[in-house]
What does this fold into?
Amino acid sequence: MKTFDRKAQDVGNIVALEHVNVWIADQGLCTLFYVAGLGGTRDPYLMVSTENMWVNFGQEQFHLITNKPQVLRGHTGLVVPDLDALLARLEAVKPKLAGSAFAFSMEDKHVAATCPWGNRIRCYAPAPQFGDITLGVAYVEFTVAPGTAPGIARFYQQIMGAPATVLAEAAGTAAHVRVGSRQELIFRETTDSIPAFDGHHIAVYIADFSGPHKKLQERGLISEESNDYQYRFVTIADPDSGQPLFEIEHEVRSFTHPMFMRPMVNRNPGQRQATWQRGRDAFVPGMV
It folds into this structure.
């Protein structure tokens, strides 16, 4: 009888990373970068006024609230269908973003892009390491203090019920936390100075909603009891010693949350008025 590694298909308790939330100062500049440049789609149904904007990339989003800008300590890994088309779009918006922190460059196998306020995005073409993602957020990587990766891995394993491993890599030792079948949270150690936490957050969906809540509550780590379907915490602490290791707000949503796997509208950024093709307005995975 043929045997299989059944653990290879275990996804753990965190089933999806849905959005990254940072504040931005100007919706016009934000639209130039996230929509016209990166090729995202402003959600047409929710947050359509000037106080907030949601930008869709596949099944994930950036939530971009108009306020004093925030900067994620690390970067977001984004998969896009075509890096050459991405570079052309970023070059087109470059003049209008002059004088801001905006920048982009072609690096080894990815495009490094920086938003007008300093948030960094690494954009990759679809590849086997990203599973079936052709458009979407593959991972979020945070920079953390030396020696904290093992404790962070234990936190996600023991408190959140998520598979996590610590790897010694060329870019630095990192805790890799599995999210669903195709996403990751990465916490990479660095000797560089780490800015103070400014309030940005990520949103995740979990299957066992009450188990992690009980453990977080016992440790005094719950920061907000939002509603029946959601709570929040900020501090990642070593479950063995209780030592705080890193701060990043988690918007924790239940598997039964009404917005779980809400259908996202995604446009095909390659459509142009002069070259418009019928039936090509919407993004379709694998579209050329």
